[in-house]
Each structure stands twice: as structure tokens, then as C-alpha cells.
Amino acid sequence: MADDVTTISSNTSWLNYNGDGTQDSDTPPDNATSGLGTGPTLNVTNGALLEISGYLNLNAATLNITDGATVSVVPDGILGGDLTNAAGGTVNIDGGTLTLSNEFNGNQSVYNITNGTLSVGNDFNGNQAVYNIYKGGVLRRVVS
Questions:
Q1: pTM of this structure
Q2: Helices H, strands E: what count in the chain?
Q3: Distance of alpha carbon 116 from alpha carbon 51, whole angstroms
Q4: pLDDT tens per residue, range 1-37
């Protein structure tokens, strides 16, 4: 599972994403730079836009958004636009953007943001998670 790597380097659309890893619902330590679970790695790079209609179910995966890339999670019809089931996962944003049009349920995961943005459109529920916000990193809620 940990060796499963997918790289997106051009514009792509998906219906849902399920990391399908082995979650760890323990709270990561304050100095953590990665989640406690094991799962696949999804790299989005090279200015690509990955639009996910529905849900980004992190499920212990590692999501790397770099080099001007954007991951946009939007509703599939009237449902979704959420990051869910995040326990044990890691999100690394370095020069990229993760936009959630609806809810952020990012509990028990680790978020590293450098020169990029994590933007949440509605509810923010990120309990027992670690947020490492480095130079140029932005974590924000966008009210529409």
C-alpha cells in the first residue's frame, strides 16, 4: 500500500478519491510532519488542476500538491465538496492550493503548508490534527 504512487501533471477530473489506507485515529504528536497511518501517495504537480467531484476521502493517504498545482473538491450534484475520513493522513502543500467548496473534516491528520493555500468553503472540523504553517502558507475559510 505505501508504495502505491499516482502522479497527476495535467488537468484531470475524478469522481471521488478514496485513499483506502490503514487509518490511525490516534492524535499525532505536536511536532509531527506526517500522519500516523499508511496509505498511497497522490502527487499533483506541474500547474495541473485535479477537480474531484464529491469527496476527498483521505483515508491515511499522503497528498502532495506542488509547483502551482490545484486540487479542487466540489459537490457532485448537491452532495460533497468535502475532505473526510482523514485519520492518519498527510497533506503537503508547497506552492499549490487545496480548495474544499464545503466541509473540512480533517481530524487526526497532519497538514504542512508552505507558499500555498488550504481553503475551506464551509464548516471547519479539524480536531486533533497538526497544522504546520510555514512561510507563505495560508489556512483560511472562505465565506460565500
A1: 0.95
A2: 0, 16
A3: 17
A4: 456 999 999 999 999 999 999 987 788 999 999 999 9
Sign of CA dihedral 18, 69, 37, 137: negative
Beta bridge partners of 66: 94
Grid cell 504512487 — which residue?
A: 5
Report how far residue 56's alpha carbon sits from residue 73's, in angstroms, rounded to the nearest whole number: 7
The CA distance from 92 to 33, in Å, is 9
Q: Which three cell numbers stand for residue 91?
A: 497533506
pLDDT tens digits for 54-110? 999 999 999 999 999 999 999 998 899 999 989 999 999 999 999 999 999 999 999
Q: Which three cell numbers stand for residue 99?
A: 480548495
Helix, strand, coil abundance in the chain, percent, nearest 5? 0, 50, 50
